[in-house]
Structures are given as structure tokens and as C-alpha cells.
Amino acid sequence: MKYNLNTNLIPIFSGTYETIWQPNEFDDEGNELNIDYDHKDLMKSIVTIFKENENYILKELQEKASFIKKIVFTNTFSSPREYNFNTDTIDFDLTINKKELNKVLKDLEHNQDFKNFLKENYSSYDGFMSFTPNNYNEIKENIENNGMEAEQSISAIINYLVMIARNTLHEIEETIYEEWNCNGYGGLDYNISEY
Prior knowledge:
This protein has about 200 residues and is α+β, with helices and mostly antiparallel strands.
């Protein structure tokens, strides 16, 4: 089965606002210079580097979530008008083996760490409305019935499996960033602003 996900659900990209992805230039004394660039071009260059690394990302995710069979970045992204509640996201299609996923789901049924992970990470609270189920039964129901929150439920399982093993999601982003950064911000056209 194929699911449409994004980097908000599986955090392998932290957005561009005040993160490693925001291009920076410095003068000889180490002072940051203002640079001017088109944000859409920046996002396109980032999506391109993620597309070029699909096999690497797949391999890293499959280490702990073997039910993932394919990942394809769709060349689409979104950026908020203001960054106070959201950040940039990149869209991708994830193909999974549903039979293998159901086996993993069965293995997690009595896993208290998984249940705690769901409650801690996906419970709504004042100022935050969660669209991901925060309990095993709803996760299972959404996956089995391909419910409205199936993508979020699958993402929660992937996040749990990968993050308990090591900080892989962050490592994936840093590895891709290093390649993008060493290639001159992925070929992004920018100018140093005069002030």
C-alpha cells in the first residue's frame, strides 16, 4: 500500500526557519552577512537533495521498520506564511508491506514503552491539537481499516521503532544536509545584501 506522508509526520527535515537549512554567509571577521534568496528556490534545492538520497533514507528507515518498501519524494513542499506555529514540510510517498506492518503491530500490542511513547508524543493539550491517535487500539484500528488517521498511525509506529534504536531521524537529516551544504547549498542562487 502507498501512503502520502510528509516530514511533519516523519521528522527527517526540520524546516528552514532558524535551522541548519537556513543559508548563512559570514565575512572574514565571522560576522553574519545578510543574504537574499528566493525561498521557493531554497525549498526546491532541498527537495532535490532528498530525492537524490531516497535509497539512503529507505535503507536507514528499513533497519528498524522493515515493512517500508519504497520512499519517493514527490517534488512538492509547503511553507507557512508565518513560522510561529508551523515549519516547512516536504511531501513523499511511502510504500509499505501491510502484512509485515500488521506483524509489527501485533508485536507492539503489549509493549508498554510503545504505549507510553504514544501518550507522551500524541496527546492533545492546551495549545496543541493532536491528529495522531495516542493509544494502541486507535492506531491498530486506523491501520487495519485504512482510517482517516492511517498515515499518522503508521508514522507513529515508524517514529517509535526508529527513535528507540538510535537518533536515526536526526542523523538522516544531518547526513543529507552535509551533502547539500558541501554542494554550495544545492546550487541555490543567492546574493549578499548590502547594508
